[in-house]
Amino acid sequence: MTTTPCFELGACQQLDGALPGRATMPAHHLVTHGVVVGMTGSGKTGFITVMIEEALRLGVPVLAIDVKGDLANLLLAFPSFDVAHMRAWASAMAAPSDSRSEEEIAQALAQERRVGLQAWGVSEADLAAFHANTDVRVLTPGSTAGEPLHILSSLERRSSRWDHDPDAARNSLSAAISLVLRLIGRDPDPARSKEHVLLALLAERRLRDGKTADLPALLEDLARPPIKVVGAMPIDSFIPKRERLALAASLNTLLASPTFASWRTGATLDVDAWMTPEPGKRTPAIILSVAHLDEEERSLVLSVVLEEVLSWVRSLPGTQRLRALVVFDEVYGFLPPHPANPPTKRPIVSLMKQSRAFGVGVVLATQNPMDLDYRALGNAGLWCVGRLQTDADCARVVDGLASIDPQGRDSAKALGAVVKRLAPRWFLVRDAHAGGEPVLVQPRWAMSLLRGPMTRTELTRARVARDPNTPVVHEIAPIPEPPEEPSHEALIDTIKSLHLLSRRAVAVH
Questions:
Q1: Model pTM?
Q2: Beta strands at 34-37 and 382-385: parallel, antiparallel or unpaired
Q3: CA dist., res. 186 & res. 212, Å (int)
Q4: I need a surface site. Which of 25, 223, 280, 371 has the fewest CB within 10 A?
């Protein structure tokens, strides 16, 4: 008889205070997704960290999107209670008024961690096993603090999916082209943008032929198109030569930007490789940290990554067990209600609707429940509600709770009063699979040291401390110049001619 793998989340009790006990949840309950909400200080990030640790403990790969920089703390899941692990973090975690020495602070932190974890039944052997069996990678697109990420991989690095799953490869290519067009201020819509259609045709032609479709190659194709017809129209009628050269000039400016070079180097954006451990290898935990990016950059990067995640999910065989977990900490702004439609919204909604059939659970978390599309969140079977700040927040979450139990709207409203009285690190949890009344859950201590957001220097230090063989990039390597071929020279001459024509036109007017 097989035992159902369960998450050991902490302690629970009934709303009336009776029947305290362990808070466990069968892993497959997360196949129908989860939502975690709670204001700052409610313990939301700690609860998410425990969920991730439990998934990894059961051998379930995790991809976590980290907007605030907290989830990189998974690097600090030290293998023992030794005070030596705390010395590097003592001063950073001390209160401003703390007059103790760093050694005294480190001793206190180590003792607090030992007592806290042992109270929840986590032994030093458990810590050692978790450390040995998990592989934590922190990817930082546009930065070398973690592993740089080549965000245009689906465009500039040919994927084998073109040979066995061209539809998935085409979706990823489309997202990368949309990103490029947004960066140069052009229409990124795959269905309406002529620039998108032309670049997609040129890139796919190269990729299907086993070639690369990097930006220098596309510049060459724009100057000397290898195709004569787009759809049913001659290419010069679809996009006149002057417009093609203007597009090429904009792409060339982007290509020449030193800042843009950081987006075109590093690890390949390959979710399948990230989330598929080799037999006998450690369970992967991929932390995609975008805390260092501005708001617009985050939206652009995450739209490409989420489209890649969606393509990967659709390539999987169906299953009812939890195969992988995707966690998005602080989804505020990326899944707003209608009519707002940022580029991240479509793939998130699609994941919430479709990924359950493939055994991929999605957990979304936020401290701002007002600005979320609750029609999408209606697909979530698990709700974990922490302390909330306003009556409007409580009312909004009550609607979400009612969405998984439409017959219980009156009782859900009554839960609003419970939510207002929650203490920090307590959550009201309703699991649609379990049925019955919701329960109160207090998450266990996290095995990871909850340092909070790390600086870039601290992130690099944590990566090296966990694995001394970790390669560290101190600066982005420059993109090599394209070979001096006649076609490239012809392109440059043509762009110069276009600029000259533009200046003459201005002079005439």
A1: 0.86
A2: parallel
A3: 23
A4: 280
